[in-house]
């Protein structure tokens, strides 16, 4: 624990089999220590950590004051008992956690490993392994440290590993040793090995390693493909030997185990402010009573000096007042009792267990329950306004199925009848009858493709050959004829499986060969080179030599990239294939284009020489390789395209609809192509054909991005003018284009009022216009445009434009950009954000957001490990927020309101009593009552309310999403509510003190003896206090529920039917060209060898959706006031004529998708169900004037789900008439 900190390394030098040489560098041993304490350091270190909290230090300060007899009128145990209780509970919890860490550390450190010492393999504990040792690993063993692979029992010195503990991936990866060390398989040879490795210092980059091996006057470059990292497990390999490079805390596993940033809720931050205010109030009361003491001692106390002198330290009235001040600070400190913090933690712990125990958030298919991985953020789940979602594996299942393909201009996959009508898929093809190696789970329905394979069409055979050769899949044969593919990404597995079922079976591979079975005949290809994939190239290629000696390059990648590199003779075929790709994209499928090129021996030799030179380069190696790849990937011949389906998870459209109705805005941040994002947007019903406009920002320069954002705002304003019946709208700011933000399709156009004040420069948009946009808009922005939009001088423009749209989709974004977008909203919107994802590329976003949610899906567990909450299905998010989050926020708010009330009622009695006891710091209550008031007498009611209270059943929370909005507006506990609670507490204290005082002060018994003494008065007051505050628990609930009643006529009308303005910047319709070219949206890798273990995981894609306000309720008025107050905008209220005019639009009688008319005055959307659609209908408010529709109406006509798994036709705010109107099935 107290090891001397060494200066940071600049490079690491390791000599094999030379401990003496390596020890002079003082490298860390292989012993790990994740625990914080030991027996000696536990007490001082733990107490030091606990007193870092201001509350504990404050109560320790009070305890010290109470130990001074001259100023303490309370015994020390009144403070030390609760303080010790809190410290003890926390210490026991910390000790328990640390005990399990010690236990885990000991288990790992005492694992056995075979170390080569003196030419003999000896068993050593992991903790005794040193840098420079050579160790032997056997099958299914964990890797003890970060090793340089020297040799392996497998051919070509291959080594198969599983990295589940490292990055969550369960598929196998492959490593290979250098050829010069691959023959050192014998312990005697390895004992003579004295090579020296010079490499980078310890770091946390899992996918990179740079170093050089110096041996026998030669140097050999080392990469990540030669390394075995601690935490990996050796699989399918009998044994291997490795040289320890990094040990213990220097290993990449331990370097990545940094602690997650501590997150605090908005209520916690408010509590800190309120505690400071309360402390200031406490000081003020102490000063008042101290002044009273000084006056009383001078005017009255002096008369008693002869027979009641001051205590020895006190010699004047000012010193008496000084001591009295501290005495009252001690007595009145119960306004913030230490039990408050204990109770809050108990309540949060209970809420976390409710989440863990929720059977409706349990996935039986994956046997995964929801898990609250933190206990500090539960109430913040009830205040979420923005959700940032990944796509692949989050909204979709990340389980790919080969669906359709286009080969040599002919489309396969759709089963058509004689008349050309699509037939229903009845029975999939049976491949097992002629292909014993077929995968029985593979389904395909088009007989014509199978027939083309059987008759031997050359183009079809070559197409399937590309799929069986150009990939990075590993094959494992469990038993004869039973193949299991270990794919780095689900889409690659789907393509190889498709080729397998059609007779082109990938069987096995070595670093230099690929073996397939082509229609039953074994064929071995020589693997000459792999041209690596990365996010810039968006393609991968292999160069192979077939048994006849012909050399051919096979390539697959994004169509937009591949088409640029085709030979000119492919023009006609390219047009036909492009039409097929557009059709596939329209169905939401993920596409790839396939091509090949024949190479002569001379071309190959010349290129191979340049390739070897670039591969051995020490500087700019990646750039050199990319340039060499570009040379050979030209003049290719197009074969066709594939279409893979990534299905939506169950319940995604319904979940998005419900969250939208709760005014939660969903942004989708994806690494996939724009076309793919748009397709999933339509599938999720985030995007609809009824939207007014969909804006696409694809600029490559700062100026072009700024211009496209400006045009988007102008289109929005133009649409608002059109909807307002042609009325001219004065808009200032941003060069004539209005700035919008957080409107999200908010109020109707009739409620918009121009800002009379002057607008500031473009960087400071007028917030008064944020509520003016009521159309259905969507914004789609690409990664390169987003990079410019996130610059300091443009980020505000982007944010306000995006927040005026109902749906926002960011495409081709990097993990860092995901985090930057989340941080932008956190910084400027002051709203609670939630990020949800399932892959390692979502970790930065999850850690940046206020709340991080990880989905345990197909991409490992890194997102789960970084998250605050985890579950297995996106649809569980609605229950987490609308049920558990809402209840947690409600319970915590009620608890805090009641707790402050009861403690002010308890403490202020001392204040009033001070005026009747000569300001002598005499207490009203018995000391034991003071000690036990919060711990015993009033603890159970408030804890029961904070843990179990429900205002409505869970079903109602889902049926009435609008009930979620008070948390977003922070209505139930804020500074105003706090002052109301303490005012009520002070009033209660006045009643509790003066009524018993008035009754008992002059009352006498029949014999003339006074009725009351000090003890009787104290017991009477204390009894009344306990009864009153216990009864007040129910009153607190009633008061909070009453706040949700509508406050008058706050309805709003919607302008007359308008026509969508002009042409959109990027208008996307159902019939438009939306191509899905996901193009290897996974990590780069596998370039140097097929045995590279880099993960070619699919990049996630995300969709964004904005739902808008639907009810003309009290919530909308409060929201408008909130925005107006926060920005200081001076808005002119709408006149009666305006309201009347805007409300004379005829009522809607039909329900259309996108609910463009759902915000009509006195109308509320209701979700109904038909076999095909869940449409939005409207409920008229009978016998009411426009604008009088209240929350009560919402309760009479709730959002009722009458079916599941249905298609959501839309859910949005008042908008323009739909462009393509669909008749509701509910009519």
Automatic annotation (TrEMBL):
Key words of the record: ATP-binding, Magnesium, Membrane, Metal-binding, Nucleotide-binding, Translocase, Transmembrane, Transmembrane helix
Polar residues: bias regions: 1125-1134
Reaction equation(s) it catalyzes: ATP + H2O + phospholipidSide 1 = ADP + phosphate + phospholipidSide 2
Gene Ontology cellular component annotations, sorted alphabetically: plasma membrane; trans-Golgi network
SUPFAM superfamilies noted in UniProt: Calcium ATPase, transduction domain A, Calcium ATPase, transmembrane domain M, HAD-like, Metal cation-transporting ATPase, ATP-binding domain N
Listed GO MF terms: ATP binding; ATP hydrolysis activity; magnesium ion binding; phosphatidylcholine flippase activity
Membrane topology: Multi-pass membrane protein
Coiled-coil intervals, chain numbering: none
Cofactor: Mg(2+)
Gene Ontology biological process terms, A to Z: Golgi organization; phospholipid translocation
Annotated stretches, region: Disordered: 1122-1168, 1205-1227
Biased composition, class Low complexity, residue ranges: 1139-1155
UniProt binding sites for ATP: 390-392, 492, 533, 556, 590, 670-672, 812, 818, 841-842
Location of the P-type ATPase N-terminal domain: 14-80
Catalytic residues (UniProt): 390
Localization: Membrane
Binding residues for Mg(2+): 390, 392, 838, 842
Domain P-type ATPase C-terminal: 864-1033
Catalytic EC class: translocase
Stored NCBIfam families: ATPase-Plipid, ATPase_P-type
Family: Belongs to the cation transport ATPase (P-type) (TC 3.A.3) family. Type IV subfamily.
PANTHER family membership: PHOSPHOLIPID-TRANSPORTING ATPASE ID, PROBABLE PHOSPHOLIPID-TRANSPORTING ATPASE
UniProt protein name: Phospholipid-transporting ATPase
Species this chain originates from: Cyprinus carpio carpio
